[in-house]
Amino acid sequence: MTTWVENPEGGRARGTGAVARAWAEVLVRPRRFFANGVAPGDQAPGLVFAVCVAVAFAGVRFVLDPATIPTAFGGPGVSAAVSLLFVAVFVAPASLHLVAALQTVLLILFVRDRAGISETVQVLAYASAPCALAGPPVPELRAACALYGAGLLALGIREVHDTSTVRAALATALPAALVFGVGFRGFAAAETLLTRWYVI
């Protein structure tokens, strides 16, 4: 799942600028992005993208809410640096591929004629784009980013695997809950908002 295709046909360009362009494109023109920017076997740019999003989320969260920095590595600065390295090297790649495996199984159940696993990995990676902005401890922002990410995942699966909106929504419900609800704290944000509205 981590193969880097040197000369993919129709895949993403490499480099910092390409990551920034992909982020903007998937947020603004997601249908066109998923139709043109996902290529068979070209997972590496998607993996890099997912790592960047995860690090941005965690990094901003640590800066604006220092209480969330793990304390197992010494002082706050060292703990934050080690934690971000852990997110980049282990948490983001492992989570992406584990959820992609689950998404593949669900696609087998809901979609008869499907694209490949590598395309699924890429869709999951790029659908996380809104969550680069979800680091601030603002529940409204975090919940909105999680909802947008879940919508992008369903849209991407629909476009890349050429299926219906209903089937895509059903197939992505559990992966979206794990990635955006749990991983990017969308459920916690929604719970905070519901509690606030209930108290009011």
UniProtKB/TrEMBL annotation:
* Yip1 domain segment(s): 25-181
Species whose genome carries this gene? Halobaculum lipolyticum
Which segments cross the bilayer?
A: 46-64, 84-111
InterPro entries (alphabetical)? Yip1_dom
Q: Where in the cell is it found?
A: Membrane
Q: Which GO terms describe its cellular component?
A: membrane
Key words of the record = Membrane, Transmembrane, Transmembrane helix
Q: How does it sit in the membrane?
A: Multi-pass membrane protein
Task: Please report the name of this protein according to its UniProt entry.
Answer: YIP1 family protein
- Per the record, the domain of life is Archaea
Please tell me whether the keyword Disulfide bond is annotated for this protein: no
